[in-house]
Amino acid sequence: METSSLVTDNLLEVRDLVVEFTTEKGTIQAVKHVNFSLAKGETIGIVGESGSGKSVTSLSIMRLIQEPVGKIASGEIIFDSPKMGKVDLLSLSKDEMQELRGNDIAMIFQEPMTSLNPVYTCGNQVMEAILLHQQVSVEEAKKRTLALFDRVKLPRVKKIFNAYPHELSGGQKQRVMIAMALSCNPSLLIADEPTTALDVTVQEAILDIVQDLRYDEETSVIFITHDLGVVAEISDHVMVMYKGETVEKGDVWDIFNEPQHPYTKGLLACRPRLDFKMKVLATVNDFMEVDEEGKLIEKENNKYKSVGEALLLNFETEDEIKDRTKDLMMRPAILEVNNLKKYFPLKKNWLSRHREYVKAVDDVSFKVYPGVTLGLVGESGCGKTTLGRLLLRLLEPTSGEVTFQGENILTLKGNEMRRLRKDMQIIFQDPYSSLNPRIAIGEAIMEPMRLFKVHKNDKERKNRVVELLETVSLQADHFNRYPHEFSGGQRQRICIARALALDPKFVVCDESVSALDVSVQAQVLNLLNELKEKFHFTYIFISHDLSVVKFMADRMIVMNKGKIEEMGFAEDIYNYPQKAYTKNLIKAIPKGDLEDVRKAQLRRKLEKEKRMQAKM
Amino acid sequence: MKLRNDKILWTISFLLVSVGLIRWSGWSTSQISLTNSYLPPFQHHLYWLGTDRLGRDVSAMLLSGYETTILISLPIMLLAAGIGIVLGGLAGYFQKVRIYLLAFLLKVIVVGCLLWEIYITIEAASLGNASIYGWLFICLLGLIWAMIHFLQRKWEKLSFWAFYLPVDQLFIRLTELLSSVPRLVLILCLATLLRPSYFNFGFVVLITYWIPAARLMRAEVLRIKQQYYIEAAKANWLQDFYILWKHALPNALPTIRISFVFGLASLIILESTLSFLGVGLPPETVSWGKMIAQNYQDGQHWWLTFFPVLGLLLVIGSLHYLADYWQEGGRKWW
């Protein structure tokens, strides 16, 4: 690479950065001696799970660490500012930093829903940023705002200029945020999980915008994400962080081709793949363990020697899949849905009888066979969650039929419904709010048993709870603990245990792993599959993540705007998608395999040369 | 943190223990001794805080006034918070309730009679001429209510003319209506109509005091309802009232208790204001408001107004201190 000979020309250099947070339990180092550098026009991807210190690193570059709780304990951040020359960001005064922030360094945050002020129009907010940092007239600022909106490919820019944030979709809001960040032509853009909350198709568009930026303006980008697929697509260099430490960094090809650190290997192996079906997902723990000093070390007698081996060993051939699913489909359906509809009234007009509706679920029919996991995918707002709730009668449908084990559950009343309820359970998306913070987890799991009078007395029930806790790899002494003492993954396990308490036959998993880190996600997915084998459940697995659904599901439904777009075997849908919608959806997923990395690298190189020639 | 907890414990014990002090001390507020009138404080070994025009002990009156204040305010506030929690919780949780007209009308009539009967009986009891028949009648009405309820459940023919009653909307309108009337004016009007007695005073104050707690409870329940653990409970087809009791209430209580303490403080001020104006409480009760009212123009004998005012400040201050502590997230019940 040409730039490597001019190391000193780096736009940003972070040296030996240490960030500490003071809590009640003492001082915690959130970032431990992190070093990295970033050249002009390059993109570095920082990958890590929650708590790895990746966001804290980026916030310390912006000097946005909240004092006095957090503190940058030591280190240097050298930034090559166009105006001030090379400066150490940590030694700048507050005013100087304010000047830099906005002008030379800009940031995009994860949550587009809350990063815009709801009481001002989108145009106003971007204009405000321009007026604050540049000496221009209001008309000029407006003109620039519209141009920016155009650049981030927002449709009908004039309309959006006058729109309030709530009138826009998540993707559009994120574009407005990017426009705001770009308003002053920053030389460094920090993107902190900018696409995590968005659908894959929207994510693809946002990634394109960020790519374009690099070609057009030579903007350097720090791209923070937990998704290795996204990193493969967008970055030149990758830094992998774990618990505040850099475990590995290097060229994107090297990291994907030959990961050195066991953690990186684990991360690469634990993602559900789209290109082939696996029986079990490898987990990070297959590759590494923590020794007595708290250091990460490679497992000695490792199950898998490399990432490739981990994938190969768990590969399930097409014939195996067909064999497995063929006789399952012969049995009578456990759940049958006929013409199910759910309309939400949009505007109530008391003058006229005409009402407008949102058709959340619009005339949906399908069958679920015992033991066959049905996956339900679609983008946000496609009605998949509503459908899941309708099946359990958490919502009353507008019309239609849901037959569970031969009984139409929509006409059942009180006690009859309760009897069926035992056989149907749901596991929710957010492990943080699905447990009552004021009830000990043992009690929470015992509660449904007690109400349905399963087992003779509380002592027997308690034994059963302990058994369940052990099934989901928690310990018996967790019984009397409260939810806040557990991590997200553990909480989701507790929720699973609670769902299992009544021995259900049918479980709806509504985005059950979406809020979890990839490595935890792999463990929970494996657990769900193990439980299915053990207790013979039928799952309906709802997710926006096609690769997760493909891993879990035997059959799959693709939903769009309340309707079923496509239905069939997961493999068939993935390999031979019939509808344009499904094709787009599959195309938009960053796969993160080696071929993609090479393609992305090549594309970038070509594009760069093309622009260079155009400039000449 | 530990030290803070101890301080809170001290504050609560100070507030509670002071209530009993007057009975324990054996001092009297009614003992008149004209030879000892207008004794200044800290001079006499018997009258620590001095005496008033009639030679009554100020320290005794102070303690007795505090007892009056707490014995009136605390039960009223508890009741108000209780009513608020129930009404607000129901309104927030159910929003709309399916009503069967006939059974509903019957129930409304019975409940109306029941409330009126309870009012009359308790008033009679507070005046000392309680009769067993009143209580029996209340039990009878309760039985009739249960019978209607049971019949309507079992006998579907009673379930005609069903419609959705927008409980939440009704609740909001009712609270808006009640809180749009200036509280003091409403209370003064009602107080002039009714005989001054503890019971009437409580009744008058209750009319407006359940509203803040109820509104807060409704808002909390609306928030908690969004949480997945409520939905998980519903997925298990648990009874709505069970969910409200076991899952919603414990999570709403930390917020409610803060508003409870603030409400208690404002109720104490209201009680002092009313007795300052000479409304509401029977004339023979001792209260801080009344002490201030009798002596505030008397600049010479400062201790007669100073100590009740100081007492008020201390009590209100301690209550706000408590509320502050809870607001900052003090986890324990104290």
General description of the model:
- The complex is a heterodimer of chains A (616) and B (334).
- By secondary structure, chain A is α/β, with parallel strands linked by helices.
- In chain A, the strands form five sheets. Chain A has a six-stranded mixed beta sheet, with helices on both faces. Chain A has a six-stranded mixed beta sheet with strand order 18-19-20-15-21-22, sandwiched between helices.
- In chain A, α16 crosses α17 (458-471), α17 (458-471) packs across α18 (488-500) and α18 (488-500) packs parallel to α19 (518-535).
- Chain B has 334 residues and is mainly alpha-helical.
- Chain B folds into two domains: 43-96 and 166-334, MetI-like (MetI-like fold, Orthogonal Bundle); 97-165.
- Chain B has helices at residues 2-25, 58-94, 101-127, 132-154, 167-180, 183-193, 198-225, 228-235, 240-277, 288-295, 303-327, and strands at residues 97-100, 162-165.
- Chain B has a two-stranded antiparallel sheet.
- Chains A and B meet through α15, β18 and α16 of A and α8 and α9 of B.
Q: What does this entry show, briefly?
A:
Chain A has 616 residues and is α/β, with parallel strands linked by helices. In chain A, 39% of the residues lie in helices and 24% in strands.
